[in-house]
Amino acid sequence: MSVREEFDAWAAQGRDRGMEERHWHTAKHALARMPVEAGDTVVDLGTGSGYALRALAETKGIGRGYGLDGAPEMARNARQYTLDADPDADVGFVVGDFGSLPFAADAVDHVFSMEAFYYSDDPAETLAEVARVLRPGGTFYCAVNYYEENVHSHGWQDDISVEMTRWDADRYREAFRDAGLHVAEQDNIPDRDVDVPPASAFPTDGWDSREEMVERYRTYGTLLTVGVAP
């Protein structure tokens, strides 16, 4: 199944809102770090329900936001959610491919991607495209939960038909640099919103021990890699 087919189905089932709720736990911290100024142009790769751009429009006054998704139903839902929340927000949604971004060179101030980069057919090509569209000094905030060090994520591939790329933190830094982006920072954002029960409650349906659950959410959380265009 293609990315388009997989996530069109998710959108039709309303699962985009569920992703928004889960991803917001750490996405909000990544978004708060972005050096976005009023009037900046921001692209959200794998926009899903469009929540990231709505948050940036509300808190940082972006000049123009473009949410790109490979699934038309996702983009359609995001457009409607945004109209319902803020009809005046200067945010639009487009269907496109990560390997061929529909933006001119040096046209974008910042790119954000939450839990979507690893769905790219060709991650190196995607990074080259991000580097192409970013203006000098522009940033790419790439956040993922599915990565090598997070051993609790390794089984996720079994639950989805789309092939995913699982890199470790070093490989992310290397790939960013290969694409011509300077790596400004890389760290783990802990998920402190998920409630971790006391040890006496374990094992649970999802976890054998409290230590494993703490490791997953508090230690590994979300891997954030930040690249800057020279």
Structural write-up:
- The mean pLDDT is 96.
- β2, α4 and β3 (91-95) form a beta-alpha-beta unit.
- The protein has a seven-stranded mixed β-sheet, with helices on both faces.
- α1 (3-12) crosses α4 and α2 (15-33) packs parallel to α3.
- The chain has helices spanning 3-12, 15-33, 51-60, 72-85, 123-133, 169-178, 210-220; strands at 41-45, 64-69, 91-95, 108-114, 134-144, 182-189, 222-228.
- The termini are far apart.
- The chain has 230 residues and is of the alpha/beta class.
- It is globular, with a radius of gyration of 17 Å.
Give the topology, please.
Elements: H1 3-12, H2 15-33, E1 41-45, H3 51-60, E2 64-69, H4 72-85, E3 91-95, E4 108-114, H5 123-133, E5 134-144, H6 169-178, E6 182-189, H7 210-220, E7 222-228
Parallel strand pairs: 1-2, 1-4, 2-3, 4-5
Antiparallel strand pairs: 5-7, 6-7
Helix pairs in contact: 1-4, 2-3
Give the strand order, joined by hyphens, for the main sheet: 3-2-1-4-5-7-6
The computed structural class is: alpha/beta
Give the CA-CA distance, first to last residue: 37 Å
Catalogue the unreliable spans.
Answer: none
**Number of alpha- plus pi-helical segments:** 7
What fraction of residues sit in β-strands?
15-25%
Topology, number of strands: 7
Backbone CA Rg? 17 Å
Largest sheet: 7 strands, mixed
* Helix content percent band: 25-40%
**Shape designation:** globular
> What is the helix/strand order?
HHEHEHEEHEHEHE
Overall mean pLDDT = 96
Question: Which descriptors apply to this entry?
Answer:
230 residues, alpha/beta, 7-stranded mixed sheet, 7 helices, 7 strands, 37% helix, 21% strand, globular
